[in-house]
Design goal:
It is built from two helices and five strands. By secondary structure, it is of the alpha+beta class. Strand 4 and strand 5 form a beta hairpin.
């Protein structure tokens, strides 16, 4: 199942991606493996997500793929919560 692109307005999209990438890297694999080819793609085993800044707007663009709709929705909420937490710090 795929979330489709979910856009979130944030003051510093590139900074938000970097903050989440630093958190994933610091976890040493516990939060998945990260690839930086197009924004931040994190492989969490049976699901993955890509987070990238828009090139033209103050938006983060999130895409999630998971085995089924319910887990996809859960993982979207998980990543969005991580983003919100990082923006509050």
């Amino acid at each position: 199942a795929a979330s489709g692109e979910i856009n979130t307005v944030v003051p510093d999209p590139a900074g938000a991606v970097e903050s989440l990438a630093a958190e994933v890297d610091a976890a040493g694999g516990a939060l998945g493996t990260a690839d930086r080819l197009d924004g931040l793609t994190v492989d969490r085993g049976d699901w993955w997500y890509n987070l990238r800044p828009s090139n033209t707007e103050p938006l983060l663009r999130l895409n999630v793929e998971a085995p089924d709709e319910a887990s996809c929705a859960d993982h979207v909420a998980e990543v969005q919560a991580a983003i919100a937490r990082l923006l509050d710090t």
